[in-house]
């Protein structure tokens, strides 16, 4: 997708989302090589007894058990890692954590890409380890799923196991067509591990994949039991006793992800009352070590619950809605939850929220209006988002810079919904009366000022039904800014091009690609230029191999960016791999479920892939 859509989006390197919830976790313990033990194999019963003896009242017994377990190396890893997290005996948990020697997660059969990432994981720390796990999750053809599940089993810290499990759990949703194929890969990586995070993910696979369900709701019960163990680990396990602040904060956030997953699983299983009871915990104030609770967090939870089949969760925050100082975002989230069943009540809640925003002090009002509009758009509340944008543009106290920022975002929202004439009008309103001032303001937001006029003309061309007039507007767009990638694509893809016009369009694309390439080389860590290059080439012509590489590289810094995933899907389609295009576009839909454009692209790729399969 063209980068302008994501102009004000940023992804924190220590954050990932399952439906909007972040995770901050520091994985500071490197993976350790296992020591080979001499002698005959030791039975699971013996290992279980030795682990229990780590908490024996007699010091000598504890020391002897520790020495024997240490000689076993990775043979005892599963039992020790499980005890480190699940044992209620702090002595056992701490000794087990110290003794656990999981060995290296790599396997001789791993594909080269997997082996490279696991080797990098061995050397990495903190945010880099999270990025590598994301890259494993997103390897082509799901090649990294089984290795990531191995990390749930073998990560030397509880935090590492939890984050890998949270990534895998986040892949499931009821209508995901790829989950049945992913489930067996997960089970292969988990082995027989009884770590709480492993038990949770195994139960999820069992409950949602018919071939792996031994009995009705047995998988669901395993998830519930595992969640209790994961929660208890924050109170009595090593995460509570010896973890860093980063590990503890990360564990709290992964716990929220697991709870969300389980709520959705209960809804899908027809147990709505149980889901509602579990959802109540999402609104409870977190422990002091976590981030401060707020109405904004409650709003995010409520919107997620409404979006995932539990709109009645609005009743859980009814008391907050009656308060005078309630957050406008919580009111809007309640309106979204009420809208399907009670449209009039939803409208009342939304209007109350709007009044609170517009009544804020001038210094706070424009910031609050912008945050509200962006959030509502991401929630699918497009009508209310548009109203918030219009309120800000009509605000006499709004600064020129804020008007430019708002106009860019609002015009892109309208464009994505197919309202190109209105999108052009929004930009024209800031350019025609004070073009120079608007262009100067654009520079403050790292935008080439020429791109505002170019974008306005591109929107006008998209709305223009007359082919001749549309072509003229596109030409004016490129005169204003020759690098407007969407205008370049539109000119290239015109069905009425003469051979000479097609050649000229190709020459323009080559020049623009070369300019973008120069910028990429100058600022190699900036994903924007790489995404822009990939989007242009994937939709026209050029070095497709480079486009794929650049698209993948942009996702390394923003792994769950729906627009960047959309670009990669177009790259896959351009090289002829429609199955990968569909798979990648589905991931984009999961990240931005309310984006009309991303959903249209998914349907288009799906149709093309179905047609190719039938040939």
Write the layout of secondary structure elements.
Blueprint: H1 44-53, H2 59-72, H3 77-86, H4 90-99, H5 112-123, H6 127-137, H7 145-154, H8 158-169, H9 179-190, H10 196-208, H11 218-236, H12 238-241, H13 245-268, H14 272-279, H15 295-307, H16 318-321, H17 328-338, H18 343-358, H19 362-379, H20 382-394, H21 400-416, H22 420-431, H23 435-443, H24 450-463, H25 467-480, H26 485-492, H27 499-522, H28 527-538, H29 544-557, H30 562-574, H31 578-591, H32 596-614
By DSSP, the count of extended strands is 0
Based on secondary structure, the structural category is mainly alpha
Low-confidence parts? 4-37, 288-292
Radius of gyration in whole Å, from Cα? 27 Å
Let me know the average pLDDT.
Answer: 86
Number of helices: 32
Mind explaining what this structure looks like?
With about 625 residues, the chain is mostly helical. Helices cover about 65% and strands about 0% of the residues. It has helices at about 45-55, 60-70, 75-85, 90-100, 110-125, 125-135, 145-155, 160-170, 180-190, 195-210, 220-235, 240, 245-270, 270-280, 295-305, 320, 330-340, 345-360, 360-380, 380-395, 400-415, 420-430, 435-445, 450-465, 465-480, 485-490, 500-520, 525-540, 545-555, 560-575, 580-590, 595-615. The model is unreliable at about 5-35 and about 290 (pLDDT under 50).
